Amino acid sequence: MTSTTVIDVDRLNLSYGGFHAVKDLSFHVQKGELYALLGTNGAGKTSTLETAEGHRAADSGTVRVFGRSPRDRRAVRSRMGIMLQESGFSPDLTVKESVQLIGTLSRRTDRVERVLDIVDLKSKSDTKVSQLSGGEKRRLDFATAVYGQPELIFLDEPTTGLDIQSRDALWQAVDKLREDGSTIVLTTHYLEEAQQHADRIGLMHKGTLHQEGTVSELTRTLPATIRFSLAAPAPEPLPLLLRSDDRGKFLIETFDLPHDLYTLLGWAHTHGAELRELEAGPTRLDDVFRAISAD
Ligand SMILES: Nc1ncnc2c1ncn2[C@@H]1O[C@H](COP(=O)(O)OP(=O)(O)OP(=O)(O)O)[C@@H](O)[C@H]1O
Fold first, then answer.
1. Is residue 45 lining ligand 1, measured as CB closer than 6 Å?
2. ABC transporter domain: from which residue to which, for each copy (predicted)?
3. Which end of the chain is less crowded, N or C, counting CB atoms within 10 A of the terminal residue's CB?
4. Between the ranges 60-64, 86-90, 235-239, where is the mean pLDDT highest?
5. What is the rounded average pLDDT of the residues 98-117?
6. Atom of ligand 1 nearest to the CA of 39
7. Is 260 in contact with 252 (CB distance < 8 Å)?
8. For residue 61, how far is its CA from the centre of ligand 1 (angstroms)?
């Protein structure tokens, strides 16, 4: 652990009765990072985050947040903002009262108007929580992460149920929090969001950390793909390894996409082969994810 380590998880184990949900999990998050903990359903992400948030005790192993036990609430609680999958605000409170309550509970200081502005709920300030739409409730949940600019922010599936505009606005707000120095830990099933925003990703499956790294470190372990079909049977064999994909198209898997795409186009030009539905792209995080989920 270094002086810039905000979260240090070392050989964490968690069980529910006889079920071993998190197995010898180790990872760390550095100051200013956006770390995405991704994984299959039931992989153990929420259980792990709950432990780092101080809501759950480890069965064995250690979890340190700002160098302290997260169970030491007085020392660490006011330094973290936690956006749960559901915050459970009282339905009878107004939006403004709910945000004021966040302030009281978090013991951080902020201006309620500023927070309402960031989560775009100013116009709903006097509306009761029970009357908010699903997306508006989610934006109110986000206020718990924004209020008082905490040093460490947990975002548990923050964009679920948000329309594209609200998603963009949330990510803009997250980018701003990061510019101002906050460290972010994210879980999401929207892999493209993690691919776009995370500095590092931990991929969990069945309670263990399968892979960890930057997006490019994770994706470079799998080949990029080129897919196409032919208008007529090929006049000459293509000098590249290819097979059929599950949609009956030709599939080339390559670790040198520009070179092999160039070869394919040259071959098609030389032999007058008409390529149809041509798609070429680098490996996406989805592909890495599918590869570990297949285990
Ligand atoms: N209170 C509980 N009692 C018994 N089993 C539990 C309990 N909470 C979680 N589990 C089990 O522990 C495993 C890990 O659950 P967890 O919620 O941490 O996974 P997750 O990665 O967050 O999943 P998801 O992506 O589906 O939200 C799952 O198999 C789940 O059924």
1. yes
2. 7-231
3. C
4. 60-64
5. 93
6. 21
7. yes
8. 19
